[in-house]
Write a structure and sequence with these properties.
This protein is α/β, with parallel strands linked by helices. The chain has helices at residues 7-14, 17-29, 32-39, 43-57, 73-101, 117-130, 143-152, 200-204, 216-227, 242-251, 260-268, 298-309; strands at 62-65, 68-71, 106-111, 135-139, 157-161, 171-177, 180-187, 208-211, 236-239, 255-259, 272-274, 282-283, 286-291. The strands form four sheets. Strands 4-3-5-13-6 form a five-stranded mixed sheet. Strands 7, 10, 11 and 12 form a four-stranded antiparallel sheet that branches. This is LysR family transcriptional regulator.
Length: 310
């Protein structure tokens, strides 16, 4: 007599949490020996667990080679699903811990643009007045690293310029700031501020705080000057950090480029002044990004809704 149990239900009944943890670790560490060290078990135990999973699934999940294990196409699909399941379990554990300890949960977010920092700083302060026991963490990192953290559930929310790399099945986006013009700003005592008319060549002859190679702002700066028929600025200091750019501009006469929102904030704080020169260049819109495949932590969803409504 044929079994009445559906194959999917049978597979789910046999898969254990330890299976998913070992599969995920193999995807990251690539060898049974490293996974065994990570979990404080023997390599034989790791190999046995992998064999169990592959027997349950019915196909190989990893290819064995001289450089370790690499996931097959089905293995990659299982790794992606395992990351979601384990991430969701981690969030459930955090929520239960928060309830037990009497806190109100956790929230982690990251920024890849200064355009929204003033807005988010105000939102954080207002949110903390309503939810004083929420543990808020601000993290740093490159875009790909932060996307990986969103995938894993370690990061709740990211604010960044819109990017094709966010076109990911699990990621959701909401607009924060529309496209904005790129502006040239100068140190407050810069001699160019005394001139009534400026040319692109005048700007090229100045000392700049230039974006580093590969930076989004460098691409926009170069494209803007090429459109004016002038080689882009090359004299000055290449800086990857906005705070150092500000320090340099406070110390000596430098020029720099900033999106309109950031430039307005620098003017308001008396750090720099916008030059009366038009660069025909728009910066991508700023978006909020989160992992829609994971049920959000309560604090993270509350803050996201709070910001988007504001």
């Amino acid at each position: 007599m044929a079994s009445s149990v559906h194959p999917v239900q049978s597979l789910l009944a046999r898969l254990k949490l330890r299976h998913l943890r070992v599969i995920q670790a193999l995807g990251e560490l690539h060898t049974a020996a490293k996974v065994a060290t990570h979990f404080h078990v023997s390599p034989a135990a790791v190999s046995k667990t992998l064999a169990e999973v592959e027997e349950i699934v019915g196909v190989p999940l990893f290819e064995r080679g001289h450089r370790g294990m690499r996931p097959t196409e089905i293995g990659k699909e299982m790794l992606a699903s395992a990351a979601i399941v384990l991430g969701q379990l981690s969030r459930m554990a955090e929520s239960l811990h928060a309830l037990r300890e009497g806190t109100r949960g956790q929230l982690s977010m990251a920024f890849r643009t200064t355009s929204v920092q003033a807005l988010i700083a105000q939102a954080i302060c207002s949110f903390r007045e309503l939810h004083p026991r929420v543990d808020i963490t601000l993290v740093e990192g490159g875009v790909l690293d932060l996307i990986a953290q969103l995938d894993e559930g370690a990061l709740d929310l990211m604010f960044a310029y819109d990017d094709p790399r966010f076109e990911h099945a699990a990621l959701q986006r909401a607009p924060m700031i529309a496209q904005q013009p790129l502006l040239v700003v100068a140190s407050v005592a810069h001699p160019l501020l005394q001139r009534k008319r400026l040319t692109a060549q005048d700007l090229c002859e100045q000392q700049w705080c230039l974006p580093v190679p590969g930076a989004r702002m460098l691409h926009h700066l170069q494209a803007a000057f090429h459109a004016l028929g002038v080689p882009p600025p090359e004299m000055g200091v290449r800086v990857s950090d906005v705070s150092m750019t500000i320090k340099l501009m406070q110390t000596a006469p430098f020029l720099a480029v900033f999106p309109q929102h950031s430039a307005a904030q620098l003017e308001q704080e008396g750090v720099a002044r916008v030059l009366p020169f038009k660069l025909d260049r728009q910066i991508e819109s700023v978006v909020a990004v989160w992992n829609g495949a994971l049920a959000p932590r309560a604090a993270a969803k509350a803050f996201r809704d709070f910001v988007l409504q504001a």
